[in-house]
Design brief:
alpha+beta; Four Helix Bundle (Hemerythrin (Met), subunit A); Nonspecific Lipid-transfer Protein, Chain A; four-stranded mixed beta sheet; two-stranded antiparallel sheet; 10 helices; 6 strands; about 10% strand
Length: about 260
């Protein structure tokens, strides 16, 4: 039997590009308000300080600028839906690159990064291939991955500082949908329906597939809880106990499948 076809989802290019810039601007405005003491504070990301995290977020856009300056790869190597799983291989390199960033002038760094990004991607088609840490991707797909990085690290900043940095709706939607689709790729099937209203519904896990009526196995949660589960910021049992996740049916236990990203 041939392998199941991977789920594909289309994203509106203009909306994704706008969402990336909007979310970056939200972070930029928030970082500018942080004191030196706050910037030296801890985060939930191991040894990273808030300053390290703030510097890393500039890499989310800065890497696109750098990659578009390199020769275009000869062939596509990584599908969008495979990107979340691929990230597990790069933790050490990302940490090294982050610590090499000069964060002495964060406002200036953010301003330069945003300007260069906006200038560099203008007029570049989504089909243009770009090299990434994990293989050549379409630019349009790579920009969708930037929404994941920005939303996840905005949440990290909020957790570390107590700020209430907003989440751009389009960026939050794209992040939620990509991580939901990645779950369906990791555990293909139709036995469990995972609902993350208002943005995503996917079926996953081998077993009987329902075709009508209420599915026998349902998981439902909100977008930020789902994103935290998918990226290892939250644990299944704790979120279930806190009623931030609802799970019904004997197959509706996703603990063994999470997190999806390293």
């Amino acid at each position: 039997m041939p392998p199941a076809k991977k789920r594909t989802r289309s994203y509106d290019s203009a909306k994704i590009r706008a969402a990336v810039l909007t979310q970056f601007e939200h972070v930029r405005e928030a970082v500018a308000t942080l004191s030196a003491e706050q910037l030296d504070g801890p985060t939930r990301l191991g040894e990273w300080t808030v300053r390290d995290l703030a510097g890393h977020i500039t890499m989310v856009l800065g890497s696109v600028v750098r990659k578009l300056s390199e020769p275009e790869p000869a062939k596509l190597e990584l599908a969008l839906v495979d990107w979340p799983a691929a990230t597990a291989t790069a933790a050490a390199t990302i940490d090294e690159d982050t610590r090499a960033i000069d964060t002495g002038d964060l406002p200036g760094l953010y301003a330069r990064t945003a300007a260069r990004f906006e200038e560099r991607i203008a007029g570049v088609p989504d089909e243009r291939l770009v090299p990434t840490r994990f293989g050549a991707m379409r630019l349009g797909d790579h920009l969708v991955t930037r929404t994941v990085e920005l939303i996840v690290h905005t949440d990290d900043l909020n957790a570390a500082t107590g700020l209430d940095i907003p989440y751009d709706r389009q960026a939050l939607a794209a992040c939620t949908r990509l991580l939901a689709d990645a779950l369906a790729v990791k555990a293909p099937g139709g036995a469990v329906e995972v609902r993350v209203p208002p943005f995503a519904v996917v079926q996953c896990v081998e077993g009987p597939r329902h075709t009508r009526g209420t599915p026998p196995n349902v998981v439902e949660t909100d977008p930020l809880t789902w994103i935290r589960l998918a990226t290892g910021r939250a644990r299944w049992a704790r979120e279930l106990d806190a009623a931030r996740v609802g799970a019904s049916g004997e197959r509706a236990d996703l603990a063994a499948l999470l997190p999806l990203m390293g």
